[in-house]
Amino acid sequence: MKCVICNREDCENGYCELHRKAYESIVKKYEVWKKVLEISWKEYLSEIIKNPLTGEWAKEVAVYLIESGEK
Ligand SMILES: [Zn+2]
To answer: What is the CA(22)–ligand 1 centre distance, in A?
Structure first.
């Protein structure tokens, strides 16, 4: 199985190690944001993409999640 984002071979559940870590931190951060802000998953993902401080890995994951329409 390949990573859905970078096509690397060594991956579990659709993501390689780096993208899975980025995905997990995105999900974790969303839990925090949700408590403070009224923000939807999609809005949150666009904020991640717009944020210049977001790492490349996380950005790629966010773009993928928006495009795939995952909730
Ligand atoms: Zn990857």
So the answer is: 10
d(CA 46, CA 15): 20
Spans of all domains in the chain: 18-68
The pTM score is: 0.86
Ligand 1 centroid from CA 36, angstroms: 30
pLDDT along the chain (71 residues), means of 10: 88 89 96 94 96 95 90 52
55 C-alpha vs ligand 1 centroid, how far in Å? 14
Q: How far is the CA of 13 from the centre of ligand 1 (A)?
A: 11
